[in-house]
Amino acid sequence: MDKQWQEVKEAVTSTCREVLGPLKRSHKEWITAETMRKIEDRKLKKSEINNSRTRTGKAEAQKKYTSANKTVKKSIKADKKNYMDTMATEAEEAAYHGNMRDLYATIKKLSGKFSKPERPVKDKEGKSISDEAGQRKRWMEHFEELLNRPAPRDPPDIPPANGDLFINCNAPTKEEISQAIKQLRNGKAAGPDGIPAEALKADLATSVEMLYPLFFKIWEEEQVPSEWKEGYLIKLPKKGDLSACSNYRGITLLSIPGKVFNRVLLNRLKDAVDPQLRDHQAGFRKDRSCTDQIATLRIILEQSQEWNSSLYVNFIDYEKAFDSVDRESLWKLMRHHGVPEKITNIIRNSYEGLTCRVVHGCQLTDAFQVRTGVRQGCLLSPFLFLLVVDWVMKASTAQKRNGIQWTFWTQLDDLDFADDVALLSHTQQQMQEKTSTVANNSARFGLNIHKGKSKVLRTNATANTTPITLDGEALQEVDNFTYLGSIVDKQGGTDVDVRVRIGKARAAFLQLKNVWASADLSINTKLRIFNTTGKSVLLYGAETWRTTVAITRKIQTFINTCLRRILRIRWPDTISNKDLWQRTKQLSVEQDILQRRFRWIGHTLRKTTTSITRQALTWNPQGKKRRGRPRNTWRRDLEAEVKHIAYAWRQLERLAQDRSAWRALVGGLCPGRGQRHK
């Protein structure tokens, strides 16, 4: 097995070395050879100052050094300007040819975004470690502890399915291998074997012919090459004190040919197993998105507020969820879902003897064993993790008595996106019971709920102020919460979310000030960059916002400011907003949000009638409306827009099934007239 793999590896890597050669790196690629010569000359002048023994000699040497230093600075400034001009030209060329990957790689250089050097870290006692060897040892110690969790005390007894699913258990075909290679994403770092995805794609037929015998042998022996079990762990900073190891997350670089094999397995498994998963889960699933869950939760909050219905939402946060899963229970769970034993054995054996080495300071730590969790960076990991969360939530909500009333026959217990779980209940007692049950069932799989990061939001629940507790510790109650990147509160949270979105979009816009100031980039290219960076950050989740005149004005004012800066229109020059939008080919914010909303509604209406997201569009809780003028809600916005386009809801449901007709409807939308002032 390993010998056959080494032959494949050597064939690919030797060809890469011969054709491409080694990658040459320069610390500052914009400094020319002529400038480097001047820098060396300046060093010599500096040495003359240090070696001079008389005052006259030192003064003369200092004069020469000052002149050389001015020459170096002038040369560096010229080099940097030429470099920026060249980068701008390359960005313009990439935009002209539609090469977005090269365009954004160039933008990153233009904006001055460079990775920061390694920082010193602290040991467990909080003492700073300065030497490289000590830092590598600390990183190895941290991740070895993180990736080797204690086994659960009470693992679940999961019986196998009565029969296997109809999944192909024959060895991978050449067609499957070819498809899996095509599905690889370019621009991703290679694993320990040094084989990039582009190398396999460069000659697809040859790659398939080389991998086919290897995959056949893997299938027969149910074992993978030992090098596929090795990984290089890259540290990615989160936020907080970056000298603390706990404020980093790791991503593992794995063998690309190993990913091809896993892609073949995933293509066989996902369509067969996915129908068994609960509709509550939207993470890593086809035709599901964060927007679905955000919109559903906003509607639940808004309608509960309008109908004066009590609601508890517990936002569960797991500690290192992907790294904590108990593998023995996971293999049982695969058989429970009907995954054939052949495939289960191959995946299980690929996890036996996993090792990792942490990359720190361009060097590797010693290897250490990884005994728990699913591999971050492996294509199968999201699929495997969903099986765990699905089992935990099925076991926790089997009695169907602690959720919110959803339809006449059903309750809605939770909304999930991978490990982001939002529990839903009407009363404190129901939420307390559900939280404890979820915590117990999670612990049986090795998952622990983070008590400090799990938050509770409640609305219209004034009768009982008893906090929700976990292991005797009260969970914090909050007025708003950032759910899947959008802020929600008791009224839905649009106002707060819009304010935060504008702040993030402003930061994204200012990071690209070199791009907007460049005279070598065309206005069209700058606008494309703005639409896909600043504007995409600004309007994330806009499909779920309730829109008022005040909210729309805030967003439009920010966009107009950005567009005027891109066009270099400054006071006292003036231009009307309408002319500004025409010159930049922009829709008004009102129309842009309207079209985004109806695109998402069309996508939602094409789901089955049992889909939670689709049912949310017309859901109302049991309760009684408050006295006085009703609040503006997303639902009320939608009703006004539907009335404006003169369609009945039933007509829209039928029209959405025809994608072309719905696309025409969305393209012809005008801003709704039914908006309510704040």
TrEMBL record:
Region Disordered: start-end pairs: 42-72
Residue intervals of the Reverse transcriptase domain: 217-488
Native source species: Littorina saxatilis
InterPro entries (alphabetical): DNA/RNA_pol_sf, DUF6451, RT_dom
Name of the featured protein: Reverse transcriptase domain-containing protein
Recorded superkingdom: Eukaryota
CDD domains in UniProt: RT_nLTR_like (cd01650)
